[in-house]
Structure formats: structure tokens, C-alpha cells
Recover the amino acids of this structure.
């Protein structure tokens, strides 16, 4: 966590005799304090691990070495922080540098987007050629499709959070509605994926409107909490309404997606036989990948277009100042509701793709942690920035999948070390750091999408700091 | 009637725990206007701290008196949880006070995820069973083939809560720090102009909130006998509901709201559906915020331009 790294302010000019010794002394005191705090924080939780013994009573295991290491680390880090002088503000103009950097990013944004799109389209084929059908399954499925689903979710939530400025902590509810819509329609009534997809989206949008309508006049943090409550209510209902949803056990054997009516099966009616190919599950996964990609690109396209339309401009204005919007005669409830419904629609569509990918849905896929992960994607990427959200989805979801690959660390750190445990720890930590360091996200974009003349430099520069 | 009486006893016990947590939410909201989403996880953290300290006292140091170990563990847990709460504000919230409105909330969500997963990593995923203490049970009345009982735990929980609330009330109403705290809650800038150290006062608020959450944590694990690293979320949301129901920012409101939520939850579980008991709390939360945002005792919230 970022600590303030500036030397203590002195009111009188420091005596010339030993400024260095004084500084060293105060730095040592500060570092000792930090070590003390670290000891206090680490003491019971890290020093002892509770383990249940064979009679199910708790016994303690000591880990004092780790406590000492933490305290030492705190001491050293704080000491370095205090001894290295803070950057003097006059030396370089950070605002100007930042503006130059923003200009470079803006110029290369188109290039990055094009390169990203090209690599996304080429990804499954390249992987297939490099690794062969058997080994590329994992890469296309758990990396490719999953990242694309989260990218779609991130872009969907970005409409609500990034554009309209409404913090939605229950976004996973719409994802769940979409997933369950497809799961139930297909298993109960035999509907195909293509028939269920629009229904899943529409149902989710309907829920978005139904839940959004009563709460949209609330102020920001209350709205966040109420959406959280709605998300949890939907999850609890999904868990307990066993007649419909089969409860905790979930809905399984959801039919797989078909190639516009051609099923991906081994038989003569299957996709592979029809095109004269040898049967392999890889075709279905590749098709699903492009399906998820198409959905993500559609979301992105619609969002980018909407931002230039009156509705999108109203969202951006609403995010900046709701009262001013109302005074200018914008129907804030309708505008917010549109953002909510569109975000929910995207969530529902992504949910249907998720159900088709897994072939199985259960309430445990739709917890608050899931909402928080999607929110982290939006916040880290930069609320309002399409490119940032895409990159954040790549980092967060790809990163957490990569953590699964780190089994070999067990040989170094010790048996029972599970890197995936650290996934949410890192995400939580990243949320705090981003809020403290760059509250507008890694790629901030709060400049309006449409403006009359050239925008002045000062406004976006201030806005990026989150001060305005 | 007997069932009703029993649920009343259970509800008041549960409600006292919620009330103690709710004070942390309401004080922080009153002074800096943010929802300290991580407060529920601070509460969960304190149950682990207290549990480990209790075990360390009885198993490693060999303190034979259960009551003494219990009191020592509780006091030490209060101190250490206060330190966590203090550092939370210092590192995750302080710099965001002047940032845009949702920044502290997002940081708090991050802190909540961080804390619960920290305990998960450090202490493992499984439920931790606590040694069962104070097992005496008093039979109050008997009727209709049903015993109405009052356990020593429940008496202890309500007594400790009442005692602490009284002490807390004195601190807030009579001491200079409490006065500064109320002044900052009314108007932070004016308080600062009058020479009140606002940073220190806010830290003090977090320390008090952490200490009360620690007491709630000790009582919680005493009552339920089991704790898990994910146990901060649901009690936290319920306590927040209590704070909102009582009128966020109002201290008596938090206690009354806590009792109400405890009672509603137990009666809902007993008479309507125990599967949907969490839905009751969430629905009350949503309904209160939509229809009665200032709660029972709160001041109406006026958004100034």
C-alpha cells in the first residue's frame, strides 16, 4: 500500500551540523514504528494457525518465522521510503508530462485496438497450429472464451459504472438471469441456443428495468448497496427455489451450442462429418470462441456508437453532475434506466454464452465475489475506457487462470501451497491500490465523447486526477 | 406462546451482536459519509484473533481459569482489532476523502475482499470450531411440550452489550474525544477551523468501531461456536441494514435497528422460512433505502450543490 514517502516537515531550518544524522534517526524511528504495527497486525493471525486435530478440537501451529519476516520487511520498506527523498515538484511538470503521455496513448489507441482485434481473431487458429487440437482445448476454452465472456461483462458493466456513473454491485444477478434462462429453456422446453439467446437477454433487461426503476433515484452509495442486496436476493432465490432451479445442485446437461443447427457431435449428422472433417471437440470450442468474440465486439460497437448519440452524451453528463443534468431538462430516471437495462441485457447475453460453455449452471457461480471481479475489471481498466476494460479482463482473468499453472511452486514453497487462493487477495489489494493511486483507472477516459470545439487541456488533466 | 418467547430471547441476543457492529457503520458514515464496506470483515477478523488468543492462553500459556482467559482474549482482541481498523482507515481510506464520491466505497470493497481472503489464506478455508464455554442453561417456563430456555451465553451476551454500550455512550457524550467526534460529524470543516484535529478524530472513530466489532466478534463465536473466513459478509450486511433501518448516522438508531433486525430475522426463520431468512434482511435493506432513506432516527439527507 502506498505510504507517504516524504521527509517529516521541519519548521525551523535544520541545524547545519548533522542534518543527515537527524534524518537517519527519524527514519529509523519511523521504520521501527512500522515494524511494530506490522507485528501487531501479524501477531495472532499469522503467528498461529488453527488446525483441527482428530477429535475436531482446535490446536495451534506456530509460524513465528513468518511474523519476523513480515516485521523485518515492513521495517526495511519504510526505512527506504523515508530515506529516499520525495520527488521535488518543481523539477518536472507532472501535468504536462501526463498530458503528453495521454496524447501518445490517444494516438496509439487505434493501433492498439486494431492489433488487439487482429490477435483475438487469430488466437484460436494460432494456438491450434502451434499446440495441436488436444492441447489447445484448454487455451481456447479456459483462457480465450472465459476472458471474452468477462470482457463482455466488463463492457456491459462499463455502460452502467463507467458511462452513467452508477455503481452496480449486483451485476452478477443479470448474468445469472441470462445463464438460467438458457439453462431452463433448453432443458425444460428443448429450445436451441439461438432461440434462447434473445430471450435470455430480454429477460435480463426486464429484470434490470424492474430492479432499477425503484432504486435509481437513490444517491450513489445507497444505490450500490441496494443493487448488492438485489444480487444476493436473486442468488438466494436461485438456491432455494429447488422446484425450478434444482437448488444448490444446479442445472446440468445443458445442450451444447450448435453450428446454426448443425450439432457438434461425432455422428454422421454432426458438424465434422458434414464438412468432411475428423470429429474433434475443438470445433465446438473454436465456434464458441468466435461466438463470444462476436458478442463482445457487438457490445463494444453499440457502446461506442451510443456514446456519440444523445443518450450516451446524457450518460456522460449524468456521471459528471446529476443536478446540472436535471436543471438542463434531462430525464435522469429514463437515462439511468436505459443504462441499467442495456447493461443488464449484455449481462444476460454473456450469461447465456457462459451456460453454453459450461453445460452446467449453479448458484455458486453467481456470488458477490463474481460481481466484485467484474467491478474490478471495470475499475482497474478505467471507468469509461473500452480498451482499458479489455486489457483489465485479460490481466485479471488470464492472470487468475495462470495462477492455476503455478503448481510447481509447491516444490519451492512447500506442500499444500495453492496459488489460486491468492487470486481474490490480489484483486482486493489491486482495488485499494488503484483507488489510492489512480482513482480513474489505468487508462482513464473522462473526456466527453462529443464536444463542440477542441477541449481545453486543463479540464481532462484535472479530471484524471479525480479532483473535479 | 412458548415458541414466541424463545424466539424473542434468541432475537434479542442476535440483535445485540448486530447492534454492536452497526455502531461501527453508523459512526463512520456519520463522520465521513462513506459506507465502510470492510467493517463486516473487521468483525470476522476479530473472531479469529479472539479465538487464537483464547487458545494460546489456555493451551500454550496454560491459564486454567476459563473466565480469565475469556476476558483477556476479549480485551486483547479489542486492542488488536482496533489496530486493524485504524490501519484500514490510514492506508485505504484517508487519501480518498477528497476524491470522487464512489472512490472510498470501491476501496472499501477491495479492503473487504482483501481481509476475508487474507484470513482465508492464513487460517485455511474450513470452519473453525470454538471450544464451547458457559454452557449452563436455565429453564424459564415450560408449556405445550416445549421448554423455553435462557442460556448463560445469552445472558452474558446481552449483559456485555449493555455494559459496553453504556461505556461507549459516556465516551461519546462526556469526553473531549467524543465531543470532537460529534463536532466532526456535524460539520467537519467548521470543526477543523475551531482547532479540532480531524484526522485524529476520524482515526478515533475507526478505533472505537473496531473495538466494538471485536466485542461483537467474541460474542458471535461464543454464541455460534464456529467461524469461517467468509463469515464477515452476511453479518456485515445485516448490521449495515440495522444501521440504515435505525437511521444511518444515529447511534441510538444503530442499537434499535440491530435489535429489530435480530428479532425480524429470528421470527422470520421461525414462522416463515429459514431458507429465506437472509432475504428478509436484504429486502428490509432495499425497502428502507428506497422508501425511508433516513431510517427511524436519522436526519433527512439533503444533497447540497
Amino acid at each position: 500500500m502506498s505510504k507517504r514517502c516524504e521527509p517529516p516537515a521541519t519548521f525551523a531550518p535544520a541545524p547545519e551540523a548533522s542534518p543527515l544524522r537527524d534524518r537517519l534517526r527519524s527514519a529509523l524511528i519511523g521504520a521501527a514504528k512500522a515494524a511494530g504495527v506490522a507485528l501487531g497486525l501479524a501477531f495472532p493471525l499469522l503467528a498461529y494457525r488453527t488446525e483441527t486435530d482428530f477429535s475436531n478440537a482446535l490446536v495451534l501451529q506456530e509460524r513465528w518465522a513468518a511474523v519476523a519476516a513480515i516485521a523485518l520487511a515492513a521495517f526495511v520498506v519504510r526505512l527506504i521510503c523515508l530515506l529516499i527523498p520525495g520527488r521535488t515538484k518543481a523539477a518536472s511538470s507532472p501535468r504536462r508530462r501526463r498530458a503528453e503521455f495521454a496524447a501518445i496513448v490517444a494516438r496509439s489507441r487505434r493501433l492498439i485496438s486494431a492489433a488487439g482485434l487482429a490477435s483475438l481473431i487469430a488466437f484460436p487458429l494460432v494456438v491450434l497450429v502451434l499446440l495441436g487440437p488436444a492441447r489447445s482445448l484448454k487455451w481456447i476454452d479456459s483462457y480465450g472464451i472465459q476472458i471474452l465472456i468477462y470482457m463482455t461483462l466488463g463492457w456491459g458493466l462499463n455502460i452502467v459504472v463507467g458511462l452513467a456513473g452508477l455503481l452496480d454491485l449486483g451485476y452478477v444477478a443479470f448474468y445469472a438471469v441470462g445463464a438460467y434462462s438458457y439453462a431452463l429453456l433448453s432443458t425444460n422446453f428443448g429450445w436451441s441456443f439461438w432461440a434462447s439467446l434473445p430471450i435470455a437477454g430480454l429477460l435480463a433487461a426486464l429484470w434490470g428495468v424492474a430492479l432499477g426503476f425503484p432504486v435509481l433515484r437513490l444517491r450513489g452509495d445507497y444505490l450500490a448497496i441496494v443493487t448488492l442486496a438485489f444480487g444476493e436476493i436473486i442468488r438466494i432465490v436461485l438456491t432455494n427455489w429447488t422446484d425450478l432451479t434444482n437448488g444448490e445442485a444446479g442445472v446440468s446437461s445443458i445442450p451444447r451450442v450448435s453450428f446454426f443447427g448443425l450439432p457438434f457431435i461425432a455422428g454422421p449428422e454432426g458438424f465434422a462429418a458434414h464438412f468432411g472433417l475428423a470429429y474433434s471437440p475443438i470445433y465446438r470450442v473454436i465456434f464458441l470462441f468466435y461466438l463470444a468474440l462476436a458478442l463482445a465486439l457487438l457490445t463494444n460497437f453499440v457502446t461506442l456508437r451510443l456514446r456519440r448519440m444523445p443518450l450516451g452524451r446524457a450518460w456522460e453528463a449524468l456521471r459528471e453532475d446529476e443536478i446540472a443534468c436535471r436543471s438542463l431538462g434531462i430525464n435522469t430516471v429514463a437515462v439511468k434506466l436505459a443504462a441499467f437495462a442495456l447493461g443488464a441485457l449484455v449481462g444476460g447475453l454473456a450469461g447465456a454464452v457462459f451456460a453454453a460453455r459450461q453445460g452446467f449452471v449453479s448458484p455458486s457461480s453467481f456470488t458477490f465475489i463474481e460481481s466484485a471481479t467484474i467491478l474490478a475489471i471495470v475499475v482497474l481498466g478505467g471507468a469509461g475506457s473500452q480498451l482499458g476494460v479489455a486489457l483489465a479482463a485479460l490481466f485479471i482473468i488470464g492472470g487468475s487462470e495462470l495462477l492455476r499453472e503455478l503448481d510447481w511452486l509447491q516444490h519451492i514453497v512447500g506442500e499444500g501451497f495453492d496459488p489460486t487462493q491468492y487470486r481474490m487477495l490480489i484483486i482486493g489489494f489491486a482495488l485499494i491500490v488503484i483507488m489510492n493511486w489512480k482513482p480513474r483507472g489505468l487508462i482513464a477516459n473522462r473526456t466527453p465523447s462529443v464536444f463542440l470545439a477542441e477541449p481545453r487541456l486543463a479540464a481532462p488533466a484535472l479530471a484524471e486526477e479525480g479532483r473535479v | 406462546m412458548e415458541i414466541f418467547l424463545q424466539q424473542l430471547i434468541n432475537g434479542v441476543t442476535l440483535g445485540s451482536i448486530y447492534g454492536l457492529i452497526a455502531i461501527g457503520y453508523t459512526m463512520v458514515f456519520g463522520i465521513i459519509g462513506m459506507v465502510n464496506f470492510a467493517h463486516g470483515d473487521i468483525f470476522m477478523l476479530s473472531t479469529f484473533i479472539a479465538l487464537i488468543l483464547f487458545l494460546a492462553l489456555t493451551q500454550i500459556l496454560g491459564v486454567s481459569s476459563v473466565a480469565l482467559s475469556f476476558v483477556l482474549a476479549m480485551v486483547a482482541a479489542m486492542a488488536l482489532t482496533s489496530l486493524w481498523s485504524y490501519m484500514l482507515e490510514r492506508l485505504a481510506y484517508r487519501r480518498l476523502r477528497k476524491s470522487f464520491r464512489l472512490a472510498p466505497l470501491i476501496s472499501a470493497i477491495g479492503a473487504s475482499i482483501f481481509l476475508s481472503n487474507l484470513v482465508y489464506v492464513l487460517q485455511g478455508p474450513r470452519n473453525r470450531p470454538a471450544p464451547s464455554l458457559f454452557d449452563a442453561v436455565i429453564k424459564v417456563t415450560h408449556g405445550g411440550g416445549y421448554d423455553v430456555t435462557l442460556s448463560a451465553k445469552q445472558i452474558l451476551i446481552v449483559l456485555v452489550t449493555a455494559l459496553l454500550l453504556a461505556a461507549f455512550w459516556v465516551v461519546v457524550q462526556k469526553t473531549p474525544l467524543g465531543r470532537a467526534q460529534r463536532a466532526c460529524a456535524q460539520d467537519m470543516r467548521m470543526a477543523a477551523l475551531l482547532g479540532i484535529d480531524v484526522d485524529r478524530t476520524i482515526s478515533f472513530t475507526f478505533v472505537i468501531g473496531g473495538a466494538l466489532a471485536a466485542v461483537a466478534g467474541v460474542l458471535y463465536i461464543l454464541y455460534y461456536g464456529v467461524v469461517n473466513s467468509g463469515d464477515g459478509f452476511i453479518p456485515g450486511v445485516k448490521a449495515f441494514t440495522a444501521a440504515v433501518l435505525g437511521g444511518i448516522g444515529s447511534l441510538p438508531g444503530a442499537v434499535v435497528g440491530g435489535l429489530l433486525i435480530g428479532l425480524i430475522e429470528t421470527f422470520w426463520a421461525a414462522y416463515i422460512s429459514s431458507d429465506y431468512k437472509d432475504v428478509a434482511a436484504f429486502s428490509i435493506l432495499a425497502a428502507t433505502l428506497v422508501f425511508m432513506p433516513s431510517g427511524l432516527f436519522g436526519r433527512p439527507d439533503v444533497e447540497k450543490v
Observations:
- The beta strands of chain A are 48-52, 58-62.
- The longest strand of chain A covers residues 48-52.
- Residues 94-163 of chain A form the longest helix (70 residues).
- Chain A touches chain B through 64 residues (CB under 8 Å).
